[in-house]
Amino acid sequence: MEQESQSLQEKVEATKKEDIQTLKQEIMDFVKLVIWFLIIFLGLKIFVVDGYEIQGDSMEPSLSTNERILVFKLPYHLSRLSIFSDIEPFEDGNIIVFESPESPGKRYVKRIIAMGPPIDDSIVDAHTGTQTNQVNVEFDRGRVFVDNHIVKEDYLSENNRTSRDTQVLELNPGEYYVLGDNREVSKDSRSFNAIEEEAIIGRAVLRFWPPKKISLIK
Description:
Elements: H1 2-47, E1 49-53, E2 68-72, H2 74-79, E3 95-99, E4 107-115, E5 135-140, E6 143-146, E7 149-150, H3 158-161, E8 166-171, E9 175-179, H4 189-192, E10 195-196, E11 200-209, E12 215-216
Antiparallel strand pairs: 1-2, 2-11, 3-4, 3-11, 4-9, 5-6, 5-8, 6-7, 9-10, 11-12
């Protein structure tokens, strides 16, 4: 009788050990799952897509304050790899998010109006060290000219286009001229000149908030 009781106790203890071991394994599996989830989430956030909240009226009527957008980063990161160097991550007219050239940690959302020439097409004068092949941008009271050709901006109304500013700027390779759609209130390349490609976070592709205004961004 005593042996049976001892044997039963041993079985109970063995079962408890198995349960504890199983619980430990389940906890470890859960921790691994969380770690993998965080790695994938951070990888997507850093290299593929991220969210951004519009602040201010500088992109009216295209984007309004407090709206939220998705910013697609992958094409830009891929274009920096030699195997994908032929990828053009941005085009004239794209809306982009970029780091402020004046205030570290601050981001702006603006529209690309003009881009500098491709590096292969740019020639540096051996005597002066200056670029001999640049893209000329002229802002003249609301109208924009790139290499003496007026930029058609059908996405703007006359009220949004109105501005008293004038400016002439030369773009070198890797430089972008950006403007807000609401020209009267926007702080953009008219004040801080061209932005460097390295400052660009990605292209705005989708407005997802508020839900009633979900749409692709053009």
